[in-house]
Automatic annotation (TrEMBL):
Chain intervals for the UniProt region annotation (Disordered): 114-146
Recorded superkingdom: Bacteria
Name under which the protein is recorded: YtxH domain-containing protein
């Protein structure tokens, strides 16, 4: 026996002794304990008598209860399997959404880099770009008003 089991056993024995001393020294506690023991033993005897007299019904009732518990456990097991399958499907859906969002993110990054590199290629030091092919006689805004 290990040290911790000896401590548990010693504590249990000490508790039983303390309880017995309390019951022995207190008249009300003795009477309550005696009444409880009498009632408990009477109830146990009644259950045993009922089981003996109605053995087949008692056994059938226990068998029926066992079958009900078994069915409930089977349904719970099936539900757990479905729950696990559903959670696996949800995980795969989340992974798929994650990959799509990563692709969209990479596309946006590529577009932003492309825009930034194309704006650097523009030569802004040349000034204004001359407009060719304007109708004669004025600016573009004057010709559109006519």
């Amino acid at each position: 026996m290990g040290k911790s089991s000896k401590l548990v056993l010693s504590g249990t024995i000490a508790g039983l002794v303390a309880g017995a001393v309390t019951v022995a020294s207190n008249r009300t506690a003795r009477e309550n304990t005696k009444r409880f023991a009498t009632n408990s033993s009477t109830q146990i005897k009644q259950v045993i008598t009922l089981a003996r007299e109605n053995r087949e019904e008692f056994v059938e009732h226990l068998r029926s209860s066992g079958e009900k518990i078994s069915r409930v456990a089977d349904h719970a097991s099936d539900d757990m399997k479905q729950l696990m399958e559903t959670s696996q499907k949800m995980k795969s859906h989340f992974d798929e959404v994650k990959h799509v969002l990563q692709d969209v993110n990479n596309e946006w990054k590529g577009m932003l880099q492309e825009v930034q590199s194309s704006s650097k290629r523009l030569d802004q030091g040349q000034g204004e770009v001359p407009i060719e092919h304007l109708p004669e006689g004025g600016t573009d805004s004057e010709n559109t008003e006519k």
